[in-house]
Amino acid sequence: MPIGYYFVIAALMFCTGLTGVLLRRNAIVLFMCVELMLNSVNLTFAAAARQWGGADGQVFVFFVIVVAAAEVVVGLALIVNMFFRRGTLDVDAPQLLRG
Amino acid sequence: MQLLAQVTSDAATGGGAEVILFWVFASIALGSGIAMVTMRNIVHAALMLVLNLLCIAGLYLGLQSSFLSIVQVIVYAGAIVVLFLFVIMLLGVSRDDLLGTKNTTRTVGAVLVGVLLAGGLLAVLGADSLTDASACGSLAVEGDGTELSCIGLDEQIAGESDSVTLVGERLFTRWTYAFELSALLLVVATLGALVLGRRKDPAISDEDVVDHEAERALAEITASRAAATAAVVAEGTPLDEMLGDDSTPVEDHHHDGYGHGDHTGHDHSLLPDPGQSADSPTDEDS
Q1: What is the ipTM of this complex?
Q2: What are φ and ψ of residue A26, in 5° steps?
Q3: Per-window interface: A 52-81 vs B, CB < 8 A
């Protein structure tokens, strides 16, 4: 399988995730779209690692997964805090720091 | 594991298995990604994310990255999405607001940006990236005349036992410090989540509630005792008779409740100990 197909799929998935980030207003869904984008980039890493025969790409994907796990833990704690403070998950809701 | 190794080895031989694997998993991954973005229910979106992550794990399998495939299933589909679902259940499902309920300009703009970026990326990749030799560059190896093949993971794996060995070796030799740092990062993230998850406002705590209830109960008891004593003083009847005590008469009712021998039948539950409410107005000893 040529590597370009993997790149195409990853690019399309990345754009889907980006559209979701721009489109949705729920903070949790926004976060899931960011996960989708991270995964598409991971896919390109793995595909390139296969193509050029380096294990470094796979190691990089491993680290990305570790950082994503840490990010999700902290981010979801922030989202829960934000919900208890503001009573909504809407990221477009009126802010505390209004001008 | 047996099946997994078989699929991987099939893919390594460059047979049709990888092609089938790719098209099935890629189409499902793309479709579930789009479904995740457009789905109205947030729980359905999370389940679509699970499907997407599992399909990407399958794509890793086709890329001879069985280690990544397993890690993807365990960490992403097993831990991260479960965490998402926990938070969704904790905060409530019905509060989802969906796509662009109010603002159509925003919807059109978001889709436009996505499509433009996709078009740009595909244009950069170009049509020749879909041919075999495109991505190799100078690493291309001359095949048997007609087709070029890169120095890929297949050749690397051929020297090793499998890709897990390859990744593990690289992870613990070249990237050891990064590995240790990632452990530190996980600890810091855990502590950060603990600190963020702690409830900070001291307005409502369990001790306060208990204290208020106890004070209220004490005040009630004191008030009832005061009323009873007032009645006693007014009418001259002994307190124990007023409370309906059927025990033997008490000679000295100021000292009741301390376990004298002649108070065996006395009901202590009707009256609190005078020692515990020393400041109450009914304590006539003081």
Answers
A1: 0.92
A2: -75, 130
A3: 52-56, 58-59, 61-63, 65-74, 76-81
